[in-house]
């Protein structure tokens, strides 16, 4: 099975694919950017693709919502990954000897408290966490470190100098599993990702929300997105879950009178959401 991911092997997309397809024989195909990944999914060059869609700290990844709609991709599943950051070095390096650290800008930001304890280390933004590990290995940078996953350290034979250096320990990313659009589904779904554009009348969005409530549909996410070519018009990306699939079907029927567009990006099994310990930080 060939699965496309954004980023290199050892990235968090790699981890997400391995977790979701744990029972499958995988061949991962890395992509430099999300658009190239989306194009290949649409063209059926891949069996599936994995795309990050939201993070508990950074929020929604809005360009990826736009790509899902633009390339008419079908969402078939989801998986949640804890984002654990690690300080990775060439074997034998010591933290007091480091003068530079490479990683994705978001990773550097998420490790701000740890890095503040080592002001001699210059922060250098790099395009990918895992690829920053490859960089310091191949360049033999003994006074530099990378911030990435343990999997990246193992892949490149590097040393984890400090584990879990992220400031917030409740940092999770939700990844969507996608394929080229096909009709039907293999098992009765529990969750759906929708794109809804309401009629341009007062109260139409409220009517949609009330319809979901009346049909016992739980909305787990709503995200507004500008409609291209229609200034100040918005569509809503909505995730919903239900107990009875028939209730969901009835809700879709009920909101038709309030909506100009109802597009089902996908109906699928719910992923296992992280359980938060209120005492954790």
From TrEMBL:
Protein origin, superkingdom: Bacteria
ACT domain residues: 193-269
Record-marked site positions (Essential for prephenate dehydratase activity): 173
Annotated Pfam families: PDT
Signal peptide: none
A GO cellular-component term linked to this record: cytoplasm
PROSITE patterns noted in UniProt: ACT, PREPHENATE_DEHYDR_3
Substrates-to-products reaction catalysed: prephenate + H(+) = 3-phenylpyruvate + CO2 + H2O
Listed GO biological process terms: L-phenylalanine biosynthetic process
Residues in Prephenate dehydratase domain copies: 2-180
Coiled-coil blocks: none
Associated pathway: Amino-acid biosynthesis; L-phenylalanine biosynthesis; phenylpyruvate from prephenate: step 1/1
Keywords: Amino-acid biosynthesis, Aromatic amino acid biosynthesis, Lyase, Phenylalanine biosynthesis
Annotated SUPFAM superfamilies: ACT-like (SSF55021), Periplasmic binding protein-like II (SSF53850)
Name recorded for this polypeptide: prephenate dehydratase
């Amino acid at each position: 099975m060939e699965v496309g991911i954004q980023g290199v092997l050892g990235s968090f997309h790699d981890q997400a694919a391995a977790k979701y397809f744990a029972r499958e024989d995988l061949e991962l195909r890395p992509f430099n950017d999300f658009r190239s990944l989306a194009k290949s999914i649409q063209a059926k060059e891949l069996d599936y693709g994995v795309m990050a869609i939201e993070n508990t700290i950074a929020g929604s990844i809005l360009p990826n919502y736009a790509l899902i709609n633009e390339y008419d991709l079908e969402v078939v599943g989801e998986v949640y990954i804890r984002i654990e950051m690690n300080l990775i070095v060439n074997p034998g390096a010591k933290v007091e000897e480091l003068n530079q650290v490479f990683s994705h800008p978001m990773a550097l930001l998420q490790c701000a408290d740890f890095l503040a304890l080592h002001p001699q280390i210059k922060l250098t933004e790099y395009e990918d966490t895992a690829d920053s590990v490859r960089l310091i290995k191949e360049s033999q940078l003994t006074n530099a470190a990378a911030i990435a996953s343990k999997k990246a350290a193992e892949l490149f034979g590097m040393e984890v100098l400090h584990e879990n250096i992220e400031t917030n320990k409740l940092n999770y990313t939700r990844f969507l599993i996608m394929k080229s659009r096909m009709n039907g589904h293999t098992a009765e779904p529990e969750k759906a990702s929708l794109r809804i554009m309401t009629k341009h009348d007062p109260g139409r969005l409220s009517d949609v929300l009330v319809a979901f409530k009346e049909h016992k549909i739980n909305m787990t996410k709503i995200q507004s997105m500008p409609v291209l070519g229609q200034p100040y018009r918005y569509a809503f990306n909505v995730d919903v879950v239900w107990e009875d699939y028939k209730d969901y079907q009835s809700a879709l029927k009920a909101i038709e009178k309030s909506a100009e567009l109802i597009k089902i990006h996908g109906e699928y099994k719910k992923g296992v959401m992280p359980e938060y310990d209120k005492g954790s930080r």
